[in-house]
Specification:
The chain has about 160 residues and is of the alpha+beta class. It has 2 helices and 6 strands. It has one domain: Hotdog Thioesterase (Thiol Ester Dehydrase, Chain A, Roll), CATH 3.10.129. The N terminus is likely disordered. InterPro entries: HotDog_dom_sf, Thioestr_dom.
Length: about 160
Amino acid sequence: MNATPLEPAAAGEAAHFRALESLYRSAPVNQLFESRLRIESAGTSSIAFDVGPALFHAAGAAHGTVYFKMMDDAAFYAANSLVSDRFLLTTGFNLFFTKPLGEGPARAEGRWISGRRRVFVAEARIIDSSGEECARGTGTFMRSRIPLAGLDGYRA
């Protein structure tokens, strides 16, 4: 089977997605949370991560910081996949816990909902290893004055 070359716009979009994935990997906080970001299409993202006992609260399930970090990142990258010139900033995030997240692999899924100029709205959810939703949330993100191209980690 022959590979079909990407159209210039599609090639640019794919390069932007890979550069955002590189930016995610370069963030120092991700040394604390073993996770992998994947952006397959504009307005979506997925973060695979593992929950171990080091991330538990005293009652033996994932601490709320894990939920927030993964859902904020998933929603953020879904929104920033639509913006190729500027870094977005989180301006607010509402989070709802629906089930304790236990040990094992999990996934945060992000999806852009609305906005394309200055403010973006995106949602995220966490799915555990059994396929059940453990949390969901909605974030608002705004364009900053920080150019993506100026960030060391932003490279295809």
